[in-house]
Write a structure and sequence with these properties.
Number of helices: 9
Bound molecules: nicotinamide-adenine-dinucleotide
Shape: globular
Oligomer: single chain
Radius of gyration: 18 Å
Number of strands: 9
CATH architecture: 3-Layer(aba) Sandwich
CATH topology: Rossmann fold
Distance between the termini: 44 Å
CATH superfamily: NAD(P)-binding Rossmann-like Domain
Number of domains: 1
Length: 259
């Protein structure tokens, strides 16, 4: 990244992987725009980093369109990291019959459509940047998939479908945005210690930790942020989905898994 003030946008930046990434990017010199629906968390992280908060739902098309003015007022946005997401487990057929379609729709809406909603608006802003004089690069976009895109667990159909969609967007997005000098990489985390996984039953969490070949623990949000920093720093990395999971392949069918 060239010297001088530059901007980064982190969706889901109020918590977990997004907050760790926002901190890392601020440490690299970015003015960070924290985009999150958490009306307490987003301003708190932004204030800590001397950044800017935008409290919004990432699925809101008008809000993303309306953020153009804000994006133009910041230092040139060179990095977008999409971390906003949610996971709600349910089995397709449970005690009371089939699950509501709304459950599936919400997962795709937030995890997949919410990601694309911000990619499209921030990519437009990046395309207007002056190219980096050394690399010819105008921006880097990092999306967050999940290893469940390939080894989804029972109860996780909606989440797996949405995250497979995020992974699948990577190459076409990279090809689409290449003429603008914008790279696109997706990160597929295994299980990381964040508020999202804190809701897991402890017995399930312990079983999952023991399944990680090495190191046999959950990932740390800072390790995710380190990978984001590597992606930002490595100009030849593009159009790829990178797993970061300690070698974990999710085991099938746990009776005490997500309901
Ligand atoms: N933690 C893990 O083990 C893990 C594994 C694989 C993938 N992921 C993915 O990483 C990303 C970050 O997850 P995390 O573990 O840090 O979770 P988290 O719950 O700590 O953080 C998610 C953030 O996204 C925000 N958010 C959720 N829905 C939103 C919406 N509609 N609009 C705006 N903001 C919204 C939340 O307010 C929260 O601040 C998610 O996309 C998640 O699916 C996490």
């Amino acid at each position: 990244m060239e010297s001088g003030r530059w901007g980064a946008v982190v969706t889901g930046g109020a918590s977990g992987l997004g907050a760790a990434t926002a901190r890392r990017l601020a440490g690299m010199g970015a003015h960070v725009l924290v985009v999150d629906r958490d009306a307490d968390g987003a301003p708190a992280v932004a204030a800590e980093l001397g950044g800017t908060a935008l409290v919004t739902d990432v699925t809101d098309e008008a809000a993303a369109d309306g953020a153009r003015e804000l994006l133009n007022s910041l230092a040139p946005v060179r990095v977008l990291v999409c971390c906003a997401g949610l996971q709600r487990g349910a089995r397709v057929v449970g005690r009371n019959g089939s699950v509501d379609l709304g459950w599936f729709r919400q997962s795709v809406e937030v995890n997949l459509i919410g990601t694309f909603n911000w990619v499209r608006v921030v990519a437009e802003r990046m395309a207007a940047n002056e190219p980096d004089p050394e690399r010819g690069e105008r921006g880097v976009i990092v999306t967050t998939s999940s290893i469940t895109a390939w080894d989804g667990v029972d109860g996780g159909v909606a989440y797996a479908a949405a995250k497979a969609g995020v992974a699948g967007m990577t190459l076409p997005l990279a090809r689409d945005l290449a003429p603008h000098g914008i790279r696109v990489v997706s990160i597929a985390p295994g299980t990381f210690d964040t508020p999202m996984v804190a809701t897991m039953p402890e017995s399930y969490a312990d079983a999952l930790r023991s399944q990680v070949p090495f190191p046999a623990r959950f990932g740390r949000p800072e390790e995710f942020a380190d990978l984001v920093a590597t992606v930002v720093d490595l100009p030849y990395l593009n159009g790829e989905v990178i797993r970061i999971d300690g070698g974990l392949r999710m085991p099938p069918s746990r009776r005490d898994g997500p309901k």
